[in-house]
């Protein structure tokens, strides 16, 4: 049963947008169609030929062939079914939070309950005019000033340990901007007081950067960058070009975009270089 989405929610406020993952972009649907369609076609032909008495092959081989084609139809049907179930879900963006719908079921996620957002890069595209230059930088592994449009999958976690997975860029960007406006002043105050800013296994304080048991004082820091493969790379003054102080997938750092404005300010004060673009405010069509 289709649910009517209110334009104003008593708890979440004004409705900003309604999103649903396109069915044709779901890899499960694509694989399911590619698997089930030919299997069903050949299974139908074989069944028709068998009933007409035109197949005289060995019975055991026939059973195996029927089994393989039937398995292909079954697996393809399951994948198509899973894609259709996902397609029936919508993610509604309100000024005060998210409303998740599946049929007549609703789940309310207020922004005030959200504490962590993880970003996983799923695609990056570049302008055709700079494609050869981008490729050269990518080969060198030193993509710095050349940036493209990044697309992310967002894992949003709440205080109640609920998790929302979204590939809707507007929802991810808006959620991050709400989180940044709420948390950034607090994180800056923590840093000024001399305490640790803790983002997962990455720690920042007035001494420098710490990752697990590794420590890098600010005077020894040379560069921090996000490369094309969405890796966070930190290089010290003593780092070799192919052996940075730290190289990890940026998706492993919770609330990473909250760190970037702090690093931008520290870059001016401390003199290290910062490369990459994790700004989100300008990517969302909605204002807070």
Keywords for this entry:
288 residues, alpha+beta, four-stranded antiparallel sheet
Explained architecture:
It is a single chain. Helix 1 (27-51) runs antiparallel to helix 2 (59-87) and helix 4 crosses helix 5. The chain has helices at residues 27-51, 59-87, 131-140, 169-192, 256-270; strands at residues 8-9, 13-19, 89-94, 97-102, 105-110, 114-125, 149-158, 163-166, 197-199, 202-204, 208-211, 214-217, 221-226, 231-236, 246-249, 273-275. The longest helix is centred in the N-terminal third of the chain and has 29 residues, at 59-87. A hairpin with a 4-residue loop joins strand 7 and strand 8. The two termini are 32 Å apart. It is an alpha+beta fold and 288 residues long. The model is unreliable at 127-146 (pLDDT under 50).
Write the layout of secondary structure elements.
Layout: E1 8-9, E2 13-19, H1 27-51, H2 59-87, E3 89-94, E4 97-102, E5 105-110, E6 114-125, H3 131-140, E7 149-158, E8 163-166, H4 169-192, E9 197-199, E10 202-204, E11 208-211, E12 214-217, E13 221-226, E14 231-236, E15 246-249, H5 256-270, E16 273-275
Parallel strand pairs: 13-16
Antiparallel strand pairs: 1-2, 2-3, 3-4, 4-5, 6-7, 7-8, 9-10, 10-11, 11-12, 13-14, 14-15
Helix pairs in contact: 1-2, 4-5
Strand content: 25-35%
H and E order? EEHHEEEEHEEHEEEEEEEHE
Question: What structural category arises from helix and sheet content?
Answer: alpha+beta
User: What is the count of DSSP helices, taking H or I runs of 4+ residues?
Assistant: 5
Low-confidence stretches: 127-146
What is the average per-residue confidence, as pLDDT, rounded to a whole number? Answer: 82
Main beta-sheet annotation: 5 strands, antiparallel
Question: How are strands sequenced across the largest beta sheet?
Answer: 1-2-3-4-5
| Distance between the first and last residues' Cα | 32 Å
Over the alpha carbons, how many angstroms does the gyration radius reach? 25 Å
Number of strands: 16
Name the helicity range.
25-40%
């Amino acid at each position: 049963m289709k649910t009517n989405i209110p334009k104003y929610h008593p708890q979440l406020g004004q409705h900003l947008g309604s999103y649903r993952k396109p069915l044709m972009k779901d890899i499960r649907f694509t694989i399911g169609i590619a698997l089930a369609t030919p299997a069903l076609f050949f299974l139908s032909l074989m069944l028709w030929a068998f009933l007409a008495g035109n197949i005289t092959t060995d019975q055991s081989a026939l059973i195996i062939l029927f089994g393989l084609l039937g398995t292909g139809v079954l697996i393809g049907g399951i994948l198509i079914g899973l894609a259709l179930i996902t397609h029936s879900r919508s993610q509604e963006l309100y000024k005060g939070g998210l409303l998740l719908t599946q049929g007549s079921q609703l789940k309310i996620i207020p922004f005030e309950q959200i504490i962590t957002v993880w970003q996983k890069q799923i695609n990056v595209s570049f302008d055709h005019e700079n494609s050869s230059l981008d490729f050269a930088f990518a080969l060198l592994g030193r993509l710095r000033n050349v940036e493209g449009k990044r697309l992310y999958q967002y894992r949003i976690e709440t205080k109640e340990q609920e998790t929302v997975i979204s590939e809707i860029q507007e929802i991810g960007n808006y959620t991050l901007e709400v989180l940044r406006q709420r948390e950034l002043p607090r994180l800056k105050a923590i840093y000024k007081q001399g305490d640790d800013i803790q983002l997962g296994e990455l720690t920042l304080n007035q001494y420098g950067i710490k990752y697990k048991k590794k420590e890098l004082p600010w005077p020894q820091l040379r560069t921090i960058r996000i490369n094309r493969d969405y890796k966070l790379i930190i290089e010290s003054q003593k780092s070799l070009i192919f052996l940075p102080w730290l190289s990890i997938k940026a998706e492993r750092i919770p609330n990473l975009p909250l760190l970037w404005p702090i690093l931008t300010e520290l870059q001016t004060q401390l003199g290290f270089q910062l490369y990459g673009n994790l700004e989100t405010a300008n990517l969302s069509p909605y204002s807070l």
